[in-house]
Specification:
Radius of gyration: 21 Å
CATH topology of the largest domain: Jelly Rolls
Number of helices: 2
CATH architecture of the largest domain: Sandwich
Protein name: Discoidin domain-containing receptor 2-like isoform X1
CATH class of the largest domain: Mainly Beta
Number of domains: 2
Helix content: under 10%
Structural class: mainly beta
Number of strands: 15
Distance between the termini: 32 Å
Keywords: Receptor
Largest sheet: 7 strands, mixed
Order of helices and strands: EEEEEEEEEEHEHEEEE
Length: 252
């Protein structure tokens, strides 16, 4: 079973700064980047209809929210494409106001009715100053299943010509590579420190399994090589390789 109560990255920085925005521009001391759980400050709305908007980077099942600050109630809207949003609540057209206890330390954890989203908006509705810091908890959505594989969307590795796709299934190395080749891709080649560090950071959002990569000596028993023919000049990948999952990797 997959852990579906993991923090999604507001506090630890796995959600990047450019993925956190607000409807109304605010001073840097109370801007969107101050909305991370346990930040020294907090994000404060600048207008009645102002909201904080978070791009999670992939589609997740959201199960819980942790809130710090003086906002005592708030509304959530969510969506998958960044354009269309649904209000959180039992009524399709009405946003349900969720309560928060500002006196709770270190934060107030609210169990939610699970919903599927990549983009989330949160709008404080009541409180002495409505300022908040927060974190969401959940897991990658089971809806991302194609051909029996639980799969994330393609995402570009910064400062690289490559993109990755993460596939969640217990499978042999040979079957993993066959699947990748069917997608006109290949198993991951961690041929540079830039790629390895990005993968390490990216996978901290997920439960700590092991991962198949494209290093093998199958055809040359005395020599290891990357399946995409990249040179084996970097071995920092060693801490991340092994058994039960695999990464799909290609150059578009």
């Amino acid at each position: 079973m997959f852990d579906c109560d993991a923090p999604l990255g507001m506090e630890n920085g796995n959600i990047n700064d450019d993925q956190i925005t607000a409807k109304v521009r605010s001073p840097s001391t109370t801007g969107p980047l101050k909305s991370r759980l346990r930040s020294n400050d907090a994000w404060c709305p600048q207008a009645k209809d102002d909201y904080l908007q978070i791009d999670l980077g992939s589609i997740y099942k959201i199960k819980n929210i942790a809130v710090q600050g003086l906002a005592t109630s708030y509304c959530i809207q969510y969506g998958k494409d960044g354009k269309t949003y649904k209000p959180y609540g039992l009524r399709a057209s009405t946003c349900e106001e969720l309560s928060s206890d500002a006196s709770t330390e270190p934060h107030f954890l609210k169990k939610l009715r699970p919903f599927i989203a990549r983009h989330i908006r949160i709008r404080p509705t009541q409180g002495s100053n409505k300022c908040v810091r927060l974190e969401f908890y959940g897991c990658l959505s089971e809806n991302l299943v194609f051909g029996g594989y639980r799969t994330t969307p393609w995402e570009k590795i910064p400062s690289s010509a490559y993109q990755i796709q993460i596939n969640h299934i217990q499978i042999s190395w040979n079957d993993a590579r066959s699947y990748c080749l069917e997608q006109k891709a290949d198993l991951l080649s961690m041929s540079t420190a830039t790629i390895a560090e990005y993968i390490k950071t990216r996978l901290t959002r997920l439960r700590p399994f092991s991962w198949w990569i494209g290093l093998t000596d199958r055809d040359y028993p005395t020599t290891y090589y990357w399946t995409d023919t990249s040179p084996v000049n970097y071995i920092g990948w060693a801490a991340y390789s092994a058994y039960s999952m695999f990464l799909n990797f290609y150059n578009r």
